[in-house]
Amino acid sequence: MMKEAEILQEGKILIYPTDTIWGIGCDALNVSAIERIKEIKGRDKSKSFIVLVKDIQMLQEYVEHLPQKAIDLIEENEKKHIPTTILYKDIKLLPLENLSSNDYLGIRIAKTDFLQRLFCAYPYPIVSSSANFSGSPSPRNFSEIDKDFLAKADYVSLEQREETHKSNPSSIFIIKDNNNIEQIR
What we know:
Blueprint: H1 3-9, E1 14-17, E2 22-25, H2 31-41, E3 50-53, H3 56-62, H4 68-79, E4 84-88, H5 96-99, E5 105-109, H6 113-121, E6 126-130, H7 147-150, E7 155-156, E8 171-175, E9 181-183
């Protein structure tokens, strides 16, 4: 089993490369691990997390009503290699009160080879927050992560540490009550 999957399974905290920036994460079903990330980051309770999932099938396990418009948007942006986070309202099975400051939760299907391998070894949603102390810039590659921050995690992935390209944050959309989708970022 991948070391990252073992860390998640043990309820521990992982620093890892996402499809956008370097992140800190844990099992999105583990409330105590989620709370530990908030402590590590010094995070304001009014800030919400993003959750990563493997594919549309996994997404459907955690979103009560997944509109076809959302599936179409995900598939369209996937073809263009645009990471896409969508804010969903009808969340199920996830501890929404620990992950979000409101009724919405941002979820993204992560498509990198590393994350797809991780989801094959650990088939549950993963919290994703930038690997930085709250208020500091988000690390777009491994070398930008504060050494003191690295020391707070239980494990730091060995994947993609040498990559120096600057990645961009995901596009963010919200599904409104009428199932219309609006872009926020």
